[in-house]
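Run log, item B.
One chain of 452 residues. Sequence copied directly from the ordering sheet:
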Amino acid sequence: MKIKRVFIANRGEIAVRVVRACKALGIESVVAVSIADQDSLAARLADRAVCIGPPRVGESYLNQNALLAAALGTNCDAIHPGYGFLAENPKFVKACEENRIIFVGPSSESVQKMGNKLEAREIAKANGVPVVPGSPRIGRYEEAIEVAEQIGFPILFKAAAGGGGRGIRIVHEPGELEGAFQSASAEAQAAFGDSTLYVERYIVSARHIEIQVFGDKTGNVIHLGERDCSMQRRYQKIIEEAPAAMVPDQTRGKIREAAVALVKGISYENAGTCEFIYDEERDEFYFLEMNARIQVEHPVTEAITGVDLVQLQLRVAGGEAIPYKQSDIKFQGHAIECRINAESPQRSFHPSPGRITLWRPPETEGIRLDTHCYQGYLVPPFYDSLLAKLIVYGKDRSDALERTKVALGQFRIEGIETNTGFLAFLINDQAFESGRYNTRWVEGNIDRFLPV
């Protein structure tokens, strides 16, 4: 069945991205908007916008009944969830299936399986994919003592239902176990409604490597290479690259193969990302989790493969087979993505909502800007602070890096505070230039960059 009209259950730059993919395929688009987003760029570009509630996300973008009613009321035959909000909510996916609306993503069964980190670990092991040494669920902090004795300190408490860096605590010695367990458990309960934790070995010199995968109804699965997302602050990605140039070619090949094996093992359909932790000291990799949706950082993969992933999502959701064999996927050049946020690095990265009085993007060659912002746009205080994704392509990493430096220097945003200066400091640092950084590098060096 070819999709004719898509309901976009999201906001911001990803809503704009989906609208443009729909236009390219001749598909009508209907975008959900809260009262705060009625004058958004997505609302302006879509064929139609439907207000689904007040600004607060619980009454709008997380309101399943309102979203489904709006999709059905506008005769949409598909819903694209974007990322975040309800994109990985199995109950929402199931509701779409029951209402015979195509969910542009995997099945509710796949979302359920991969949404629980403990179940995902077991699925990975069953498919021969290595996982970080750790434990099953633990109910008391005392249970972690035995695990720590087996795998050694430091360890991580992690939320079984978690993601986005919440419900995670590092423990360096036995005396920290009780406090870390209590705080991680409470945070997990508040964020996900599930306080269940498990334990993993904490890998000190770690890189965050993820593989873009794609499956269809025929059982065909391909990968589109890897991304290096090691430049993070408090488990939140800041800068992403593709390919992962600092990981040996042979190891990258093994990680790609592991991701494909996992995805085939669960008969996965549509776009997904398998996340791995790479131990540089041991040249070993371990499965972390699978994100059953399109990722924020998907454009760097598009840049080096030439494949439009959002268009491919829509085509596969409409019943088409993936039009590529693995051998058709070629990797050329290097891409870097910087997340431009409305936040103040000088004030502990507090959000900085307000009106954009000047919006002047860079004009360097090789640049793509995914954004929902424009001059005069009022950044609301209710949502994620992401303003734009600056994606820069070059013939190799050095070329992409130099273009990124120029682009960040040219980007002018006034009226609100942003992190562009902070990103420029990171990009120009020797550690980033050499590629010798890990997931904890930013936090370990933050005092050198602030105030910026």
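Observations after the first pass:
- The longest strand covers residues 221-233.
- The two ends are 53 Å apart (CA to CA).
Flagged for discussion on Thursday.
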